[in-house]
Specification:
Blueprint: E1 9-15, E2 20-26, E3 32-36, H1 43-55, E4 76-80, H2 89-122
Parallel strand pairs: 3-4
Antiparallel strand pairs: 1-2, 2-3
Length: 123
């Protein structure tokens, strides 16, 4: 029998008052990895966040009684890491198209202004 690869479930959260993005990954082995873009959460807030995730069904219910993070805990990890952030190629193309149009229009307007200055000076 061939083993199947199980994709990790991923959920993203944004906390605007802390300017922090979180990526919560949950695999089939009940290991939870939480990646934060900034280290803005206190230990108490991290623990409460994990309990809330469990109560809302994002991670297994057994984490509702989570007591806190420790160095030896293998089941749940909190990592400060920005490497998971990436910009969509579609968004990059759209932004580049907008910038090319903007620069072309600015260049055309500049040429018209210079032409107007030369015409005014010639009269």
């Amino acid at each position: 029998m061939r083993a199947q690869k199980v994709r990790r479930k991923q959920f993203e959260f944004y906390f605007p008052n802390l300017d922090t993005l979180l990526l919560v990954e949950h695999g089939s082995d009940d290991q939870v990895i939480i990646r934060a873009t900034r280290d803005t959460f206190s230990q108490r807030r991290k623990t409460l966040f994990v309990k809330q995730l469990a109560s809302e069904g994002f991670i297994p219910d057994s984490y509702q009684w989570f007591c806190g993070f420790s160095e030896t805990d293998e089941q749940i990890k909190w990592i400060v890491d920005c490497s998971w952030l990436e910009i969509s190629p579609r968004l990059i193309r759209r932004t580049n198209r907008f910038m090319y149009r903007l620069l072309f229009c600015a260049y055309a307007l500049w040429i018209m202004e210079i032409g107007t200055v030369f015409l005014q000076a010639a009269q």
